[in-house]
Design goal:
The structure is a homodimer of 187-residue chains. By secondary structure, chain A is α+β, with helices and mostly antiparallel strands. Chain A has a domain of 112 residues: Jelly Rolls (Sandwich). In chain A, 48% of the residues lie in helices and 24% in strands. Chain A contains seven helices and nine strands, in the order E-H-E-E-E-E-E-E-H-E-E-H-H-H-H-H. In chain A, the strands form two sheets. In chain A, strands 1-6-5-8-3 form a five-stranded mixed sheet. In chain A, helix 6 crosses helix 7. At the A-B interface, helix 2 and helix 4 of A face helix 2 and helix 4 of B. Chain A binds a DNA duplex (30 and 30 nucleotides) through helix 7. Chains A, B: Pfam families: cNMP_binding. Chains A, B: One of its GO terms (molecular function) is kinase activity. Chains A, B: It comes from Pedobacter caeni. Chains A, B: One of its GO terms (cellular component) is cytosol.
DNA sequence: TTTAGGTTGGGACAAATGTCCTTTATATGA
DNA sequence: TCATATAAAGGACATTTGTCCCAACCTAAA
């Protein structure tokens, strides 16, 4: 739900210490509300989050949003676009101030070619995302709202974070009205 | 929707010609209705389909099924489980008679370590699956049934295949009754 | 031919969800 | 302080979807 990947984070921190060329790899800060990736736009960087929370979401043509994941420490962004040379699949917006490593795409591709360890990390990460995405799609389709709602409430409690009602609804793929109904039902 | 990957297929066909050890890699046939993977079960093989159609689906505890994808020529199965050493995430059942290459997991892992080309193919495949899975989750949540229904009808027409109503409903994450209603609405 | 099982199609009602709108809080800047 | 915008909560109604049925149809085995 709130995804993190500390293997990635320590990998990139190590690399950042050694790598002096800030054209290729640099640590940047982004205020809350920044779009790191814009759906259908062209991205020139791959990001790995050092600190903060982002949401990764689709904006559909009917004006509704669907949040795929909340990404936090150590999560990678824009890797799919880099691998497949595509425009951005969805948008990624910062929900808090965010510090992230920005990696040039050619440098990212070099890493993939040369560093077996990095490849493995990435393969592992994509596999985990597939597991999350597909099992969530299944349970969202086949269960009532409350099932997913409980999970997102737990998350906020455990991690001590606050997600706006609108974002919660977008994560569940429902309207605000339905979210409110489900919330009163839980009490 | 009906996924194929001809790069994988020619890769594995090449390898199969060279590789004499049938313990590691062999071509097998499975009659319609065979479970190549069983949800929560342990798998000892990774498969690459040579011919035929399979469905990859979750069985939820409430008795409902959700079909993630229909996999056909060149698609790989069980790779996520092999990469992450997990039990099977979902089941894969053959919808027609199927011919598939069965790869021993240790041999699969060796391939991943040694063959840069294979790694790239797999990374590309996982990336594409993420694109499909997440964008489908989004549109299924945010649009009416008819949107997805039209696509699955097109598929059957173009590919000249027949999917049972039950499977169509499971793919759309709805009940048979709702599927029938949507079908009459389309006329 | 008959039977049994599976697939398909749809009626009737209940439950869930969306749409539209209003009201109440809670900020935040003028 | 006031005004204004924004988030949150929920009423009323329409629409969608699910549940529980039953009937028609087809196919394969007896």
């Amino acid at each position: 739900m709130l995804r993190t990947n500390h293997f990635f984070l320590s990998f990139i921190e190590n690399l950042h210490e050694k790598q002096a060329n800030i054209e290729e790899l640099s640590l940047k800060t982004f205020p809350k509300g920044t779009f790191l990736l814009k759906q259908d736009g062209r991205s020139s960087k791959v990001f790995i989050i050092k600190e903060g929370i982002t949401k990764c979401f689709f904006s559909e043509e009917n004006g509704k949003d669907y949040i795929v994941e909340f990404l936090s420490e150590g999560e990678i962004l824009g890797e799919i676009e880099a691998i497949r040379n595509n425009n951005c699949l969805c948008s990624v917006e910062t929900l808090t101030d965010v510090e992230a490593y920005a990696i040039n795409i050619p440098f990212f591709k070099q890493l993939l070619e040369k560093d077996l360890n990095f490849q493995k990390l990435l393969l592992d990460e994509l596999a985990e995302r597939l597991i999350n995405t597909s099992s969530r799609a299944s349970s969202q389709q086949l269960y009532t709202i409350e099932y997913g709602l409980k999970k997102i409430l737990e998350l906020q409690y455990k991690q001590n974070i606050v997600i706006s009602k609108e974002d919660m609804a977008a994560y569940l793929g429902i309207t605000l009205r339905s979210l409110n109904r489900a919330l009163t039902n839980l009490k």
